[in-house]
Amino acid sequence: MTDRKRPAPDPRRLDVLIDRVRLEVDNGALPSAQLAVHVDGRECAFETFGDATPTTRYVLQSTGRSVVAGVLWKLISDGLLDVSRTVASYIPEFATNGKDSVTVEQVVTHVGGFPLAPLGYPAMLHREERLAAFAKWRLTYEPGSELQFHLTSAAWVIAELCERLTGQPIRDYLASLTGPLGLHSIEIGPPLERQHDVAPFVRTDGGSDDDVYPWGPWYLARPEILAAGEPSHSTVATASDLAGWYQALMNSDIWRREVVEDALRVRVTLPVTGERGGTPSVPGNVGLFILLAGDDGLSRGFLPTATGPRTFGHGGAASQVGFADPDSGLSFAFLTNGYPSTGYEQSRIGLNRIINVGNLAADCFS
User: Fold this and answer.
1) pLDDT (tens digit, 9 = 90+) per residue, 188-221?
2) How far are the Cα atoms of 68, 125, 313, 328, 343 from residue 316, in angstroms, in the given order?
């Protein structure tokens, strides 16, 4: 969001970051990992560790929400979508069970009131069944009153908005954005024949994969589920292309700059509750389908605390993260395929890993 070119990161600090991630693989905590650091459109580091190659793609889980956010911002940039309007004004099938007054903004900031609305496999494969699910969804709280991550429901709404407004399914529309940017590894729901380069899920806490909790993140370990393309979690990419996507969000004229600036405005600051809740002492800072660091030094969504207040991005299972700092021009991605049996790495070791790695990336400048 600036034409000013800043100096490259300090190579010694980059080495510390790279060694920190390498340690996670060398000591057996993770089967593989990738990291990428970009600054002002330049790739300053891209490293792969363990059982992977530089072309290996990772399932982004919730880290992929920043990719879906870019689709949302493009619809706004092209004048196709007004987030202040109700969802039902675009998708009449949604206007049931008290949802007629829910706005697009409330949905994409996770205060829409239907956080765990169900839509599973194989119903998700068929548009008519997705729309039938929309009609069945019910509110569990007054829209705007609580912040609960709409784990899959919000992205399904974004996907339908995309198809209504552009005539293209979201995976095809996304490809029309990533292609010109040269970010070819980014894909929502890769078909079975294109999953050969996707890192398989590997259990990190012992035992066989038969013992894992079958829902949550492990749901996407099944190739047919990944291919079904649930937008919030089934995006795949390399770390390099994810960091490049953030650079594009900050700098490319694909998006109107005033739209991006407005998308990065904190719209919701509430305690994160519900299925993926946090603590009331650390409220979420939510923009348009992304999280923001804010200026109080508190860690949100695995975003670093050693960076600027406008830093935006998203963490995801098991312990992955992508973010960008418009003030320094930095973007960063850390991806892995190591998952505990629960799918979410929330042990002390796991949390320390993602917090330390993110802050080391943010601290790359001398």
Assistant:
1) 999 999 999 999 999 998 877 778 888 889 999 9
2) 14, 23, 10, 23, 10
